[in-house]
Amino acid sequence: LRDSAGAPLQAGDSPIGRALGGAMVRREEAMLRAGDGSERFVVMSAAPVHSERPLPVSLVVVSLEDIGEVKRLERLRDEFLSIAAHELKTPLTSVKGYAQLLRRRGLEGAQADRGLEVINRQCDRMNQLIEDLLDLSRVDLGRLCLRLQRCELRELAAEAIAHVQPLTARHRLLLDCEVGASVEADRERIEQVLANLLDNAV
Fold first, then answer.
1. What is the three-class DSSP state of 63?
2. What is the pLDDT of residue 167?
3. Is residue 18 a contact partner of residue 32, using CB atoms and an 8 Å limit?
4. Collapsing DSSP states into helix, strand and coil, what is residue 16?
């Protein structure tokens, strides 16, 4: 028997041991080793039963509730929040980069339109990520729900470059792709993966 953090419990410190000492134990999390060797998260309650007071405890009533599924969902939630927080950084960085360009360099005409277009697209992406964050039912095994559609890889790569280029003045990002290819994928996720790779590279 282990506590919820995985540390072994001495006999006298376990819910059953404390109940044998006369204490009432209510809903404490613990880890039990099952017959097949696996460990399971449970909530334990233990109550002492006295035949006649003040005689020693003659019986302990124990209840167990398996909370393994609850723990699994909590872990998925934490992983999802971590992924969502990381993915929100990429569009925020693009928005900030173009906003700074518009303010400092006074972009006009086509350049200004391009900057505003990227800002608008990244705001849409952040909105979608926030919707995913609010809808945890769309998480399956720690992954965001995929919205599959036919995508042109060259187009996705070009958009990723457009998002990252304003963030680096030392590098000029070029796309060299003579052969087009299309795949069925989640457009937002693939574009974000490419943008993250480029962002890490520069």
1. strand
2. 64
3. no
4. helix
What is the 3-state secondary structure of 163-192?
HHHHHCCCCCCCCCCCCCCEEEEEHHHHHH
Q: Please, where are the H alpha helices in the chain?
A: 15-20, 68-104, 109-134, 153-164, 187-201
Rounded to an integer, what distance in angstroms lies between the CA atom of residue 20 and that of residue 6? 23
- 8-state DSSP, 146: P
Tokens standing for residue 39: 């460990």
Closest by CA to 121, choosing from 185, 192, 194, 169, is 192
pLDDT score at 15: 85
Cβ 30 vs Cβ 1: under 8 Å: yes
* Separation in Å, CA 38 to CA 7, 13, 18, 35: 16, 22, 25, 7
Residue-wise burial string across 17-51, b where 16 or more C-beta atoms lie within 10 A, e elsewhere: bbbbeeeebeeeebbeeeeeeeeebbbbbbbbeee
Kindly give the confidence (pLDDT) of every residue in the chain, 202 residues in length, as a single tens digit, with 9 standing for 90 and above: 777 777 888 878 888 888 888 888 888 888 888 778 788 888 989 888 876 666 677 788 888 888 888 888 888 778 877 777 777 777 777 787 777 777 776 667 777 777 777 777 777 777 767 766 665 555 555 555 678 889 888 888 888 888 777 766 677 887 777 777 888 888 877 877 787 777 777 6
Residue 118 structure tokens: 């990227």
Domain range summary for the chain, segments of one domain joined by +: 2-66, 71-201
